[in-house]
């Protein structure tokens, strides 16, 4: 195995024996094989569209495959082998309808036994992408960005919002990886990946806000009630809505977990009175927090953590969508009305004790772009009067490493005349710190999930317009991004494509950036890694 797609990759170069995330060698290889067969299918979808054939089903399938291979989404190699087989079947059906001139092996490869799948899986990893390490690094950069893009595209299509241009770009990217390419063209492809990142985040924003309304300022309880509860994790708001519909009036409380917290701010979700609050913190604390939750837990997307040997909650955890864990059950059935059938989870919840309280109080959320623009006058006044000196974007992911304490410390040491703009699970490092407010504006404005980083790009562009500036980098905004997995890669690339320079990312820079690529990215975009809190305060001119 070789996997270097996330920030926790071993020695910041690559996991080669077992994933730091817990992914086994076999699962990692089978995920590579899934990408390989998706390359074959992508050759055909692109050719088929040129021949006037609709490939919507195939594009959605490829999107789901990319999502399946994201960090901490799916650890269930048996189910992934089935997805490989489904991909081959999509490919061969399409092949029978069109004429194809390409001859890449991914267009014709197939196997007769699972043993052959495992054998082939060892030969198709990202190390085989190119002999030149810089080009290989850029191809990995594109692939990982496209994986993040796929996650957002899938949430959008689940709500009925699609953009064929995004599907086409993801498929063209998978094909590009199989071909020779110049360094310059590969670099430009990375930049184009960011441009499509903006498009997909805008699409998902439209999907979420037109379905559930614009997020509004909301206070979310972090304590517990006395009813049995169901905990829902991940990012898929449609799954949450269906769970809320099916649990209504059943004496069960629904709690959000980790990246599902922002759901509490959407009018068409918060209207359900039994959506009672948020339980716990960022994804990596689930090993303890699921024990004390006592009731069933539903994963709609990453981040899953493989259970410990001593874990007692395995029979209470369910996965759906692109997620999977061999020890946990999967929701496969649908109700006659087309909704996912959550009755097994609901019946189990009725037999469980209520959650054990681990925190009390509430947190304020709901500062997505529409709400922030409603406060724009107030914020601009505070900026103009000097009450707010700087806006500090601290969006992104949280993860396990001790070095992540940097972000808590950074938030604590920020001068009192700064406001943190956050989104993604990175927020759990400082969203319960009681940092106060500036003239009624909370010092932590939470826009939502990682995809809602779109809000901060949107707000920055609006501010640039209102303040009549010729360059977005002249705004009093700095970017200190915490990254972990591939959604953060696409978010960061999207920010770069909007012309935002001098972003800091950490705790470390991506392992797939070779020294040459690092200097290219630094030269073109001014990207830097985090240092110590004290040094960064000076660099950002905050101290
Ligand atoms: Fe956090 Fe995990 Fe949102 Fe990432 S819950 S690191 O998937 O996408 O952020
Ligand atoms: Fe390693 Fe991250 Fe890949 Fe897991 S996802 S195997 S931790 S690089």
From TrEMBL:
<feature type="binding site">
    <location>
        <position position="487"/>
    </location>
    <ligand>
        <name>hybrid [4Fe-2O-2S] cluster</name>
    </ligand>
</feature>
<feature type="binding site">
    <location>
        <position position="3"/>
    </location>
    <ligand>
        <name>[4Fe-4S] cluster</name>
    </ligand>
</feature>
<feature type="binding site">
    <location>
        <position position="303"/>
    </location>
    <ligand>
        <name>hybrid [4Fe-2O-2S] cluster</name>
    </ligand>
</feature>
<feature type="binding site" description="via persulfide group">
    <location>
        <position position="397"/>
    </location>
    <ligand>
        <name>hybrid [4Fe-2O-2S] cluster</name>
    </ligand>
</feature>
<feature type="binding site">
    <location>
        <position position="6"/>
    </location>
    <ligand>
        <name>[4Fe-4S] cluster</name>
    </ligand>
</feature>
<protein>
    <recommendedName>
        <fullName>Hydroxylamine reductase</fullName>
        <ecNumber>1.7.99.1</ecNumber>
    </recommendedName>
</protein>
<feature type="binding site">
    <location>
        <position position="450"/>
    </location>
    <ligand>
        <name>hybrid [4Fe-2O-2S] cluster</name>
    </ligand>
</feature>
<feature type="binding site">
    <location>
        <position position="425"/>
    </location>
    <ligand>
        <name>hybrid [4Fe-2O-2S] cluster</name>
    </ligand>
</feature>
<keyword id="KW-0560">Oxidoreductase</keyword>
<dbReference type="Pfam" id="PF03063">
    <property type="entry name" value="Prismane"/>
</dbReference>
<comment type="similarity">
    <text>Belongs to the HCP family.</text>
</comment>
<keyword id="KW-0408">Iron</keyword>
<feature type="modified residue" description="Cysteine persulfide">
    <location>
        <position position="397"/>
    </location>
</feature>
<keyword id="KW-0479">Metal-binding</keyword>
<dbReference type="InterPro" id="IPR016100">
    <property type="entry name" value="Prismane_a-bundle"/>
</dbReference>
<feature type="binding site">
    <location>
        <position position="21"/>
    </location>
    <ligand>
        <name>[4Fe-4S] cluster</name>
    </ligand>
</feature>
<comment type="function">
    <text>Catalyzes the reduction of hydroxylamine to form NH(3) and H(2)O.</text>
</comment>
<dbReference type="InterPro" id="IPR016099">
    <property type="entry name" value="Prismane-like_a/b-sand"/>
</dbReference>
<feature type="binding site">
    <location>
        <position position="15"/>
    </location>
    <ligand>
        <name>[4Fe-4S] cluster</name>
    </ligand>
</feature>
<keyword id="KW-0963">Cytoplasm</keyword>
<dbReference type="InterPro" id="IPR004137">
    <property type="entry name" value="HCP/CODH"/>
</dbReference>
<feature type="binding site">
    <location>
        <position position="235"/>
    </location>
    <ligand>
        <name>hybrid [4Fe-2O-2S] cluster</name>
    </ligand>
</feature>
<keyword id="KW-0004">4Fe-4S</keyword>
<dbReference type="InterPro" id="IPR010048">
    <property type="entry name" value="Hydroxylam_reduct"/>
</dbReference>
<feature type="binding site">
    <location>
        <position position="259"/>
    </location>
    <ligand>
        <name>hybrid [4Fe-2O-2S] cluster</name>
    </ligand>
</feature>
<keyword id="KW-0411">Iron-sulfur</keyword>
<dbReference type="InterPro" id="IPR011254">
    <property type="entry name" value="Prismane-like_sf"/>
</dbReference>
<feature type="binding site">
    <location>
        <position position="485"/>
    </location>
    <ligand>
        <name>hybrid [4Fe-2O-2S] cluster</name>
    </ligand>
</feature>
């Amino acid at each position: 195995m070789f996997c270097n797609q996330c920030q926790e990759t071993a020695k910041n170069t690559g996991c080669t024996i077992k994933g730091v995330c817990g992914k086994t060698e076999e699962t990692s290889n089978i995920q590579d094989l899934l990408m390989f067969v998706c390359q074959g299918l992508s050759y055909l979808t692109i050719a088929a569209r040129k021949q006037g054939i609709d490939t919507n089903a195939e594009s959605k399938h490829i999107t789901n495959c990319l999502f399946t291979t994201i960090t901490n989404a799916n650890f269930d190699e048996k189910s992934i082998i089935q997805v490989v087989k489904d991909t081959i079947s999509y490919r061969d059906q399409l092949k029978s309808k069109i004429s194809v001139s390409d001859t890449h092996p991914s267009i014709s490869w197939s196997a007769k036994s699972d043993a052959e799948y495992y054998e082939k899986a060892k030969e198709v990893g990202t190390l085989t992408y190119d002999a030149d390490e810089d080009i290989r690094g850029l191809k990995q950069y594109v692939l990982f960005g496209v994986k993040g893009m796929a996650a957002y595209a899938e949430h959008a299509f689940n709500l009925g919002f699609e953009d064929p241009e995004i599907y086409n770009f993801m498929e063209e990217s998978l094909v590009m990886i199989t071909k020779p390419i110049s360094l310059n063209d590969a670099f430009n492809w990375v930049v184009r990946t960011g441009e499509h990142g903006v498009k997909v985040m805008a699409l998902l924003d439209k999907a979420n806000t037109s379905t559930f309304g614009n997020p509004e300022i909301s206070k979310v309880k972090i304590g517990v009630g006395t009813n049995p509860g169901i905990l829902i994790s991940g990012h898929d708001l449609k799954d949450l809505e269906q769970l809320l519909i099916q649990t209504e009036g059943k004496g069960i409380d629904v709690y959000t977990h980790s990246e599902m917290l922002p759901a509490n701010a959407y009018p068409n979700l918060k209207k359900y009175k039994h959506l009672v609050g948020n339980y716990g913190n960022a994804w990596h604390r689930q090993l303890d927090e699921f024990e004390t939750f006592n009731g069933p837990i539903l994963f709609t997307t990453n981040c899953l953590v493989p259970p410990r040997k001593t874990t007692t909650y395995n029979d209470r955890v369910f996965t759906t969508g692109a997620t999977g864990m061999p020890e946990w059950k999967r929701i496969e059935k649908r109700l006659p009305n087309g909704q996912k059938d959550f009755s097994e989870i609901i019946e189990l919840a009725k037999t469980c004790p209520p959650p054990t309280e681990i925190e009390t109080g509430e947190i304020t959320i709901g500062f997505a772009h529409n709400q922030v623009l409603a406060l724009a006058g107030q914020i601009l006044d505070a900026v103009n009067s000097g009450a707010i000196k700087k806006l500090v974007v601290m969006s992104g992911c949280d993860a396990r490493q001790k070095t992540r304490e940097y972000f808590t410390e950074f938030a604590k040491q920020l001068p009192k005349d700064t406001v943190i703009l956050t989104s993604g699970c990175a927020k759990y490092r400082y969203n319960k710190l009681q940092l106060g407010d500036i003239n009624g504006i909370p010092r932590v404005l939470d826009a939502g999930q990682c995809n809602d980083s779109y809000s901060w790009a949107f707000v920055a562009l609006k501010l640039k317009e209102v303040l009549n500036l010729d360059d977005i980098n002249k705004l009093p905004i700095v970017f200190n991004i915490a990254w972990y997995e591939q959604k953060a890669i696409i978010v960061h690339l999207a920010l770069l494509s909007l012309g935002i320079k001098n972003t800091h990312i950490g705790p470390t820079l991506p392992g797939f950036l070779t020294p040459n690529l690092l200097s290219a990215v630094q030269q073109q975009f001014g990207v830097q890694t985090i240092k110590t809190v004290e040094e960064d305060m000076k660099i950002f001119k905050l101290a």
